[in-house]
Amino acid sequence: MTMREIRTLVGGRGLVESPRWHDGRVYFSDWTAGEVLAADPDGRCEVVARVKSLPLCTAWLPDGGLLLVDSPGGRLLRQDGDGTRTVHADLGRAGWNDIVADGRGNAYVNRAGFDPMAGEEFRPGSVFLAAPDGTVREVAGDIAFPNGMAVTPDGSTLIVADSYSGELVAFAIGAGGGLSDRRVWADLGDGTPDGICADAEGAVWYADVPHERCVRVAEGGAVLDAVEVERGAFACALGGPGGTTLFITAAEWQGMTEPEPVRPGSGRLLAADVEVPGAGWP
């Protein structure tokens, strides 16, 4: 694998997640603080939203609206550039996790079937579609633990990281946003995928907390590249000038049932240069 310089853009944070490149900055969430932050490529950083939610994931709509998952409130919030916040969709129950929005304004939000941090008994999770008109419906189920998601550049496929099964699972996206033709896009062996992103050659990067790395894989699961980060890698996104910067949110993992899942202050936003630019969503 290629040896790379790993740059720390922002440090001293908590459980950091959900990096998203948008309009010259990388946005990411600090779940511990309940904050969404934006950093420029030099690491200058500001808080752009505060939501008391764990998890706290985000997505950008094609019209520039920022979607925020209010997990305990069971709501999908929209924040505009002037800070105005409205309810984009009523999701219902609590327990929501990751989100991705495609080029048509469809937002896919997933939820686990149980709360591992509370020691609940295992139940598989689901993916829901929040359509542009605010309606919400389940579009995929029986995913052991749905985590990061990405939409391919042509808008035809949703890829879901199943952390418990060690797989990337793909679905065909229909004209109305529905999902069909489920298949295993990649068997990751002992990999534990969390946040993911796609690139212009059709490969996917996945972040892996226990293995402290991000891995680039082709469809089928062949490993093409990897970036070691020496702490739990929770999510990754491609962006920056030319789209060839891999932004990684990482922290020192202590355990799902610990009072502090990550060591306080260990959360970092990292950056590494890669060869193939990002494409698709997020």
UniProtKB/TrEMBL annotation:
<dbReference type="InterPro" id="IPR011042">
    <property type="entry name" value="6-blade_b-propeller_TolB-like"/>
</dbReference>
<dbReference type="InterPro" id="IPR005511">
    <property type="entry name" value="SMP-30"/>
</dbReference>
<dbReference type="InterPro" id="IPR013658">
    <property type="entry name" value="SGL"/>
</dbReference>
<dbReference type="InterPro" id="IPR051262">
    <property type="entry name" value="SMP-30/CGR1_Lactonase"/>
</dbReference>
<protein>
    <submittedName>
        <fullName>SMP-30/gluconolactonase/LRE family protein</fullName>
    </submittedName>
</protein>
<dbReference type="Pfam" id="PF08450">
    <property type="entry name" value="SGL"/>
</dbReference>
<feature type="domain" description="SMP-30/Gluconolactonase/LRE-like region">
    <location>
        <begin position="17"/>
        <end position="251"/>
    </location>
</feature>
<keyword id="KW-0378">Hydrolase</keyword>
<comment type="similarity">
    <text>Belongs to the SMP-30/CGR1 family.</text>
</comment>
